[in-house]
Amino acid sequence: MTRESGAWRGRSFIQGGRHKVRRTLYMPALSAIRWNPDLKRKYQALLDAGKPPKVALTAVMRKLVVLANALLQQDRL
Question: Of 55, 77, 65, which Cα lies nearest the Cα of 28?
Fold first, then answer.
């Protein structure tokens, strides 16, 4: 959700979606940015681009979902 009114621009935040999925992916994403070299590079690149840490972490969470879906689709789990 984006908070905007006229010319005023506020920060965006997550309001909708599946909160159980977000809560479930939080700790695996933290582990991934610490131990997975590819996801660590992605997280660091987002931080270097000026993104807030929570936004970068959410991007890693999304990458984990995309990766899991790809593995399921290929019967590799």
Answer: 65
What confidence tens digit (pLDDT) does each residue in 18-52 have?
A: 888 889 999 999 999 999 999 999 999 999 999 99
Total Cβ atoms within 10 A of residue 55: 14
Secondary structure E strands in 1-77: 2-5, 8-12
Max Cα–Cα distance, the chain, nearest Å: 49
Vertex 14 angle, CA 28 and 24, to 5°: 25
Radius of gyration of the chain (CA): 15
Is the whole model's pTM more than 0.85, yes or no?
A: no
